[in-house]
Amino acid sequence: MAIATVNPATGEEIQAFDPLTDEEIDRKLRLAAETFREYRNTSFADRSRWMMRAAEILEEEQEELGRIATLEMGKTFVSAKAEAVKCARGCRYYAENAEKFLADEPAELEGAFVRYQPLGPVLAIMPWNFPYWQAFRFLAPALMAGNVGLLKHASNVPQCALKIEDIVRRAGFPEGAFQTLLVGSSAVQAIIDDPRVRATTLTGSEGAGRQVGHEAGEQIKPSVLELGGSDPFIVMPSADLDQAISTAVTSRTLNNGQSCINAKRIIVHEEIADEFQRRYVEEMQALKVGDPMDEGTDMGPLAMPQLVEDLDDQVRRSVEAGARVLTGGKPQDGPGNYYPPTVLTDIPEGSPPRTEEFFGPVASLFRARDAEEALRIANDTPFGLSSSVWSNDPAERERFIDGIEAGMVYVNRMTESTPEIPFGGVKNSGYGRELSHFGIKEFVNIKTVWVTEPEGSAGEGVE
């Protein structure tokens, strides 16, 4: 894929960038390694001050940042500005808490403790769907821990990638503490293999995760993989139906339907399924699809033409297998990568909604006779990222919390990522955790220290 800004609302190429040469990559890796030797010894106070300044820049420049993200990947301007503000929140969270999270921890044996130390340059391979948040939720904990960062961003958001590096530099971090690498996917293996790179993290497709995880393993380097999901959204009779329906619509169409934690498989108890389906379809049909810069737009285009083709193919194969389309189901005519809000039902066993991730505004409705069948459907997927359960029955809630095979369960609320709680999945959704105190400890050396003082030396002969 070319490294270029292509407006997904019009198909117009705005700007193209030359990928880095091998020599330029080597210079950046050398700078990262050299910077780390000094940067690891900076104080938490200095890092915190720089990170706080990054947060201020994100807030001050949210209009410009939002415009760039909307231009490059099509998210609505309103949501793009909100993403910049969310990044500021993440920066402040780690600026305020990193020293506490990484303080020496006493062990249960006398004289023993654990010290957390940075590893070195960490490569982050990040996706286009949340072009700022995905990068900042890596860089904030990584830099606060004393690591330095290398960002290989998605090739369709180069201006976002360069802007992130610019913000970090202007915030006061030393040159080389965070660098953007404008390279294609073919360059990634060699960068992971380079001994100056000490760890890697990827948010992306299952296929990309398998490749990156394999390569990191070959080099005996730690990795964190967040590989998307097919999240269940379970609604039981005791739930607040109005809130559940509204949230299901918002969740499925968030970010134009391009989120790993969208409510992709909506599982409704048969007692309320008819009403839920009718109202859900009506609300999906009422959404305004159009110019993402228009603040009245609910949903903009998909990021790339290939995504429209893939989604259309998945819907077509689902229908061929026996599923019914209740609304939408075909790409919109005209310029831009537009796909309408779509609802499928009567989903057969083995069909795409049960086995694949739909990365676009297509919801699949399932009916369940009881909680046990709802749980079975929820777990009938190779993925296990997050989930949302709507119930006001305490015993029922506990059954789902305990039984859902996912890294996250949200009860009576929409799934989201936020700095204060860990984010990550199980099964084919990956391994490791981002955010909270768990995230900052993914890329540190958990060093055991055990000190034995010479006998009789403690204060002997001192008055």
Topology of helices and strands:
Layout: E1 4-6, E2 13-16, H1 22-39, H2 44-60, H3 62-73, H4 77-101, E3 105-106, E4 112-118, E5 121-125, H5 133-144, E6 148-152, H6 158-170, E7 178-180, H7 188-193, E8 199-203, H8 206-218, E9 223-226, E10 232-235, H9 241-253, E11 265-269, H10 270-285, H11 305-321, E12 324-327, E13 342-345, H12 352-355, E14 362-368, H13 371-379, E15 383-384, E16 388-390, H14 394-403, E17 410-411, E18 426-427, E19 430-431, H15 436-440, E20 444-450
Parallel strand pairs: 5-6, 5-8, 6-7, 8-9, 10-11, 10-16, 11-14, 13-14, 16-17
Antiparallel strand pairs: 1-2, 3-4, 4-20, 9-19, 12-13, 15-18
Helix pairs in contact: 2-4, 3-4, 3-6, 4-5, 9-10
Structure at a glance:
The chain has 463 residues and is α/β, with parallel strands linked by helices. It contains 15 helices and 20 strands.
